[in-house]
Amino acid sequence: MNKLNLIQEIEKKLLGVSETPFLDAKFFVEGCEQKGVLISENLIDDFIERRKKKEPVSKIIESRGFWALDFYVTKDVLDPRPDSETLIEAVLEQFPDKQRDLSILDIGTGSGCLLVSLLYEYKNAVGTGVDISLKALEVAKKNALPYKASFYEKDFYSSDFQKGLARYDIIISNPPYIKTDEVLQLEDNVRLYDPLLALDGGKDGLEAYRRLAVVIKLILKENGFIFFEIGKGQAQDVISIMQSSGFEFLKSYKDLGQIERVLVFRLH
Ligand SMILES: C[S@@+](CC[C@H](N)C(=O)[O-])C[C@H]1O[C@@H](n2cnc3c(N)ncnc32)[C@H](O)[C@@H]1O
Asked: In CATH, what number does 74-266 get?
């Protein structure tokens, strides 16, 4: 059976299971191809069963496209989201010289998709990624193999968070920002398959920003920039938090859905 026929066979089995049966089948077949996995009937049945339970295709094939690259993903990392590409666009606009030897810190790096995408764009940059999850860091390390990057297990709530870190030109972060009581209402494909650690931003969803507004002052260079991804409707609150901590608000960027998604600040 040729590739298209195989995709169409699997597509038929996904009718009523997924809203995007053709794309699911295509990503599945191509994901197996890339990994050199032979597609058997058993493997297809397993795929359909997992899709019935709303497991995202990316988590099944352990791969997700983001910006210009394919990223290895597991159950231990947040699935890279298209909305997060807004952060890459924001950095590129604020730092148009791609030859600069920037130092970039990614707080809550997860799969490393943000940091690695920036290292792909800025060939002379050096990256550092930190995360509280050791398992996430293992994934990020794999994704960052071709780049100049190091990774550390760190909790940004701990009192010695800054220990061992340098001062950076750019700090990026997509911290957990969903209100605790909203996490349970998320769609199954997120609630069941993305790590809770990556989602829960505390009672009002803003806890991580309050903490980061304090600690990043210790590790950002003078005139350094911070790029935050934020949740829907959080812009004014996060701007207030950052301004109270002495940061200058520079710009907000909207995602493809016209939602304010990324805020840029500078420290003088
Ligand atoms: C929303 S995910 C973002 C992952 C990735 N940067 C992305 O954009 O796809 C947030 C990440 O922050 C990490 N995290 C949560 N709490 C943390 C903490 N207290 N200290 C360090 N990292 C934390 C989670 O493990 C998760 O990987």
From this structure: 3.40.50.150
